[in-house]
TrEMBL record:
Chain coiled-coil ranges: none
Residues making up the signal peptide according to the UniProt record: 1-31
Keywords noted in UniProt: Signal
Span of domain Ig-like SoxY: 51-151
Gene from which this protein is expressed: soxY
Segments traversing the membrane: none
InterPro entries, A to Z: SoxY, SoxY_sf, Sulphur_oxidation_SoxY, TAT_signal
Protein name: Thiosulfate oxidation carrier protein SoxY
Length: 153
């Protein structure tokens, strides 16, 4: 436990020094651009449009994993990954949620394009992994069945 605490302190000190020196900007680490319109989008198509795209294609270079059945819709683990070169943005969208966009990630150049998160799902729905690579929008989808809703259910 003490070793974990020391590691957190070291990482915090290094990041603090990098911010102070101007090597890292908060936008490099945190959400660079917040767009409420993207989170207000009710569908995959609308979210892509709000992100500046006009179309997307289903791609085998994009993968999404999650449980077939989620017993608790409040905490559904989802992982997305992209083998497409030059992936710079990834997002998780839950089709039947009040707001389809659940999470978005800027992927820095030279890093592995893979993320794992937990999303809230109100009901059984298709979950989409949306990826921007070389300026093209790619998607993969998976249906996840929810037995106990997480969005007020």
């Amino acid at each position: 436990m003490n070793q974990q605490r020391r590691n957190v302190m070291r990482i915090s000190a290094i990041l603090g020094a990098a911010f102070a020196a101007g090597v890292l900007k908060p936008a490099d680490v945190f959400a660079a651009e917040w767009s409420q319109k993207v989170f207000d989008a009710k569908s995959l198509e609308a979210a892509v449009k709000e992100l500046g795209g006009d179309k997307f294609t289903v791609s085998s270079d994009v993968s999404i994993t999650g449980p077939d059945i989620a017993e608790n819709g409040a905490v559904v683990p989802v992982s997305i990954a992209s083998k497409a070169p030059n992936t710079d943005f990834m997002a998780v969208l839950v089709e039947k949620n009040p707001s389809a966009m659940s999470a978005s990630f800027n992927i820095p150049a030279g890093t592995e394009a893979a993320v794992t998160t937990r999303v809230k799902m109100g009901a059984t729905s298709n979950v989409h992994a949306l990826v921007r690579a070389d300026g093209k929008w790619l998607v993969a989808s998976k249906e996840i069945k929810v037995t106990l809703g997480g969005c007020g259910g």
